[in-house]
Amino acid sequence: MAKIKILPPNVANQIAAGEVIERPASVVKELIENSLDAGADRIEIAVEGGGRDLIQIKDNGVGMDREDIELAVEPHATSKIATEKDLSSIQTLGFRGEALASIASVSNFTLISRPKHAQQGWELNISFGHKKSIKPKGCPSGTLVKVEDLFGQIPARRKFLKSAQTELGHISQTVRIYAAANPTIHFELTSKKRTLFRSKQGLSGSLALWPLVGEKIASRLLKFEGSGPWFSIKGYISGPEDGRSTSKGFYFFVNNRIVREKMLWKALSEACKGSFVKGTYPLGAVFIQVEPEYVDVNCHPSKQEVRFRDGSAIFQALYNGIKRALESRHDPLSVGEKSIHHLKFNNKNKISQLSEPPPIEINNDLEQDQPLREDYPIQPSIPLEVNDSIQTTENFSTKSDSFEPFESSSPFRLIGHLENTYILFQGPEGLIMVDQHAAHEAILFKNIMDSLESNKTIVSQTLAFPIIISKSHDEVSQLDKSKHILKKLGLKLESFGATEIAVHEVPEIVARQPDKTKIISELIDKALEINSSDPKSLLWDLVAKIACRCAIKADDELHSAEMKQLIDDLIEQGITNCPHGRPVVIAISLEEIQKRFKRI
Ligand code: ADP
Ligand code: MG
Asked: What is the pTM assigned to this prediction?
């Protein structure tokens, strides 16, 4: 090997730049952060060629004098921290003093700046790490940074850049992220003389997130909050109806810094379990403000990873906040902007009347109040015109007793059973369809979870003959770790030799199923599949499995009394989604039906 030499500073800076400056969007990020740290409230960004040809950022922040301009581009030169102690209480977005030196080492770099009260500004030029010149410059107060020919002399880096369009997309996304996190600051992004983004003033709350989720969705995000002695959390999350197939639409900010942090993702995904269908993700953002001493932002070059001193407190508060927001939402099923809640509560016949004693005088007005039946009797042979999901009425069965209201005072009336799968009933404002399997599954799930949460034991049944299940040696010993969780659910088992498991007691609800051996075997597989160090998640999955396997199935024939019972339970418990997040109920308002028949 050759002799060791210290690298010349411009080469060393180029190598360091590789960590900070991955692509044009990273330049934009670093320069926006500098402008924000400089107290600017106006930041204008112009790019050409997807940022390869030009990135220019102009701000109206505090500006720099000649001495600071020259220092700013030196490696490890910063005005934001001075001592090691300052590292533990960082309040600014930058603190490493690396960005300008790195950017100047991989581009044709120009820095023009003037502090407010200075008579004149200065312009500094650097070409790929070689200091060229500094000269006086007439300019407005604030700072302008111009980055041209990015990676121009570093072909290896250029090769990794994507098309100008793709890079522009990343830049635009970066600007949008900072605009959403700083709604009082004016951001503008232009390219090829076109404005690609411009902040809107005076927006607050969820509306401020429009750059990330669009205006429509921003207006219907659900708010959540949480706090602890050293942190506060404020966030906005979409309901499952606005869910996406990618997790990229949810953003985490810690002290206004965008971060990627596994623990925060975990809190989000745990809290979304049961509200979002597997494989779909919410849109939204959360802003966590933490006392600077309680968070370490200096653990990754991109400054996008953070470490909390007590991560579990943040996890819990975030989880609780999101969970509560998702559970309390009032419009979970948007069918023509209506929901079962809406159908329930927006009518004078409130659902609570279902459980109240019937009025002394039985009022038959209800019969006449049903124009749907009176005016438009169902004609089984006439195909319905528009609804995608119901093409014809051929499979529409009604039972002789189906048309009775649940109770004489109730606005809910059972009207049919479609394909032995969907229960149809009439609510105060229209047609309500219930997926019988999803509904029953959700009810069972909620009952078991409620029992577990209130520390009630799950009723179990001892088997006359234990069920023996063969497993590998490793699996038998692995299962040992989840035994206590399975026991909580009423499933008592023990190893039976090295490669078999004997199941002695099973939850009563499972014992009643004709295919109980199969269900138990599935539960054991689930317990093996999931990391038992996460008992909460394992318990959740096991309960979901039990609920799914023990619920009535699609295609099961039901009596009207059973259907009514199911609907009663559903309404009473306010259930709208199954544990996997699929809707249980779909409502179509009378208005919507009339519109489709072109009556209104
Ligand atoms: P850091 O932001 O980590 O301190 P940078 O290399 O990004 O490092 O910037 C170096 C220094 O230059 C900053 O600490 C700041 O004092 C100054 N600076 C950079 N950009 C601006 C700006 N837009 N306005 C005022 N000062 C700036
Ligand atoms: Mg910086």
From this structure: 0.63
